[in-house]
Structures are given as C-alpha cells and as structure tokens.
Design brief:
Helices cover about 65% and strands about 0% of the residues.
Length: about 120
C-alpha cells in the first residue's frame, strides 16, 4: 500500500501532464530563451490576475472554450503555467503537493490565524 508521500499513480499522471505542459509551451515558442525565474513567477501571477478579472466581469463563459467559465479556464492556465515552470526547472511538484497536503492535515485550525 502506498503512503500519501509516495502516491505513484498520482505522481506518474501528474508528471506526465507536467511534461506535456512544458512540451506544448516549448513547441509554441515560449522557451526560445531561458525565462528568468522572476519573469516566470510574474507569468503565473498574471494568470491569477486574469482569474480575478473573470470574477470582476461576472465570470461569463470563456470566449475560446465556452463549456467552461472564464474563472475555470484562467485557473487552469495558472496550473498549466506552474507545471510548465516546474518542468523547465526540474522541480518535483507532484511530490511536493503530496507532502504539503499531508503536512496541512497536521496543522491547527486555520493554521492558528484569525483568517
């Protein structure tokens, strides 16, 4: 039986999609140069800002994929950009997600904060 730290099925599937996110970005010209870490983080942040804007605009259906709301698509873009970054930097994001979720279970209510 696998522990929460070594959920191989999750990690294998996530890592495959992470590699796919990077490959698609590379094939579309987003890795023609080495993107500095601060710029990559800014790109991730810009996707979150677009998610906020979707809410400010009433969260209409996405213009390109109307089966999903604008918020859903912008959050997906955020995750995809994070996956692209993690693959470009060879980060063990899937492992970190599992360990962090396990750790969060051990933390106090609201992590000891008011909100």
């Amino acid at each position: 039986m696998e522990t929460k730290f070594t959920d191989g099925q999750f990690m294998a599937a996530f890592n495959e999609r992470q590699h796919e996110a990077y490959t698609i970005a590379k094939e579309h010209g987003f890795h023609e140069r080495n993107i500095p870490d601060p710029e990559f983080i800014a790109l991730i942040h810009s996707e979150l800002s677009e998610a906020l804007q979707a809410l400010r605009n009433g969260n209409p259906p996405d213009h390109h994929i109307p089966e999903f709301s604008s918020l859903e698509i912008e959050l997906a873009d955020t995750v995809i950009t994070i996956m692209d970054y993690a693959e470009a930097r060879q980060l063990n994001l899937s492992g970190a997600i599992l360990v962090k979720m396990f750790y969060n279970q051990t933390r106090p209510y609201k992590h000891g904060k008011r909100f």
